[in-house]
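Batch manifest, entry 17 of 40.
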Amino acid sequence: MAKIVDGLLDRIERDGELRRLFGRDLTHERETQKRFFTEWLGGESAYSEHAHVPLELGADATAVDDNGCTPLDWVERAARSVDKAAVRRLLRSGRAS
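Output type: structure tokens
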């Protein structure tokens, strides 16, 4: 999971539109995203223990930012930055948690 999240955030750091959504230092975000994806993929629930909104409550998919983008627009953009081959290997290996 660490390789996938680090790869994703490395790409986000190079993407001007996505980068502005994060704080100056992505160290905290890297650890938070590792906990999020681990839990989302069925692993240890370390994310919800510390989150303001537990994963099971979801997000408001109809919210629109100043650019007219919904959360789903941002997820789609972020998904294009994910190393899909690495995700497939991780899921096949059974080490997603």
